[in-house]
Design brief:
Blueprint: H1 6-17, E1 22-33, E2 36-42, E3 45-47, E4 51-55, H2 62-69, E5 79-87, E6 90-91, H3 99-105, E7 106-109, H4 120-130, H5 136-149, H6 153-156, H7 169-182, E8 187-191, H8 199-212, E9 217-221, H9 225-231, E10 234-241, E11 244-252, H10 253-258, H11 263-269
Parallel strand pairs: 4-9, 4-10, 7-8, 8-9
Antiparallel strand pairs: 1-2, 1-3, 1-5, 5-6, 10-11
Helix pairs in contact: 4-5, 4-7, 5-7, 7-8
Bound molecules: adenosine-5'-triphosphate and magnesium ion.
């Protein structure tokens, strides 16, 4: 018998190691812009402490779906959402649901790094202050901790007052992840977080995402199937049906990327369609 290589073994064990406990569940989630559905009837389960990759062709509603999970979609003009998003079994669309707290618990990382046009230090201290951390010593300690966590501390500790926009793209993206982590989120939504970066910076960010697994629930949208296969525990494939995104299949990364019985999934994974 041919021995499985290390990567295959790691992939299989990662796909099985998670103790799947639901943290977010969507039920018949549908989002429309000006009455036209971007995606329809999505029933997806996202497990606590795991990395779930959402993949699918351009325009099938992946970004719009992420935006629903922390109600950023509320801020989009002409955008209507129906169905349910249950976060820790509570419906986030209920009238009394605290949206500010939701956005603190469910942080977002965008494709293009978006640091504030402020110093590196203020990128972290400013949101901490906004969220009620008034003691400067405590805020500075959190700042140092999260910069270490994302592997940026040694690179920036001597230039904390420099403009965040003077950092490289990859450093800016790690700073944005640090900024999200400073607010102690439980979930991180990541929309193609490496696709605007050069390969080396992208692989650093990818390594960081892998390290965050377990401590955070991560939902990552990526067009890079090799990346999804490298890092995800679970995966979901969105596709088009009547010009709107639908969920074709969800399962462990192993089921989706290596042993799917669904024709669309197989064709997409093999690069034949999409
Ligand atoms: N703010 C908006 N107003 C109107 N239509 C929108 C808006 N945002 C997205 N759409 C439309 O909704 C559909 C889904 O878009 P979305 O950006 O969610 O897809 P996606 O899967 O993330 O695509 P990509 O892989 O290219 O990023 C597309 O038809 C898009 O044109
Ligand atoms: Mg998108």
């Amino acid at each position: 018998m041919i021995e499985k290589d290390f990567n295959t073994q790691a992939f299989e064990s990662r796909s099985q190691c998670c103790d799947p406990q639901t943290q977010i569940e969507t039920r018949d989630l549908t989002l429309s812009y000006k009455g036209k559905p971007a995606f329809k009837n999505i029933n997806l389960t996202i497990n606590r402490g795991c990395i779930t990759a959402v993949v699918g062709p351009s325009g099938c509603g992946k970004t719009s779906f992420l935006n629903c999970l922390n109600r950023l979609s509320d801020l989009m003009p002409h955008c209507e959402v129906s169905g349910e998003v249950l976060f820790d079994s509570k419906n986030i669309h209920e009238k009394k649901y605290d949206v500010g707290l939701l956005r603190r618990r469910v942080g977002m990382i965008f494709q293009k790094p978006n640091p504030f046009p402020l110093s590196i230090k203020k990128n972290l201290l400013f949101p901490l202050k906004e969220h009620g951390v008034r003691d400067p010593k405590e805020a500075e300690a959190i700042m140092e901790q999260v910069l270490m966590h994302v592997g940026l501390w040694n690179e920036v500790k001597d230039r904390l007052d420099a403009a965040a926009l003077s950092l490289s793209g990859g450093q800016q993206q790690r700073l944005c992840i640090a900024r999200a982590l400073a607010l102690k989120p439980e979930v991180l939504l990541m929309d193609e977080p490496c696709s605007a970066l050069d390969p080396i910076s992208g692989s650093k960010v990818e390594g960081l995402i892998t390290q965050l697994q377990g401590a955070y629930t991560i939902v990552i949208v990526t067009h890079n199937l090799a990346q999804a296969k490298r890092i995800a525990n679970f995966a979901a494939l969105f596709w088009f049906q009547e010009e709107a995104g639908v969920l074709v299949e969800q399962g462990t990364a192993l089921q989706i990327f290596d042993s799917s019985k669904n024709e669309i999934t197989r064709a997409y994974i093999q690069g034949v369609r999409g």
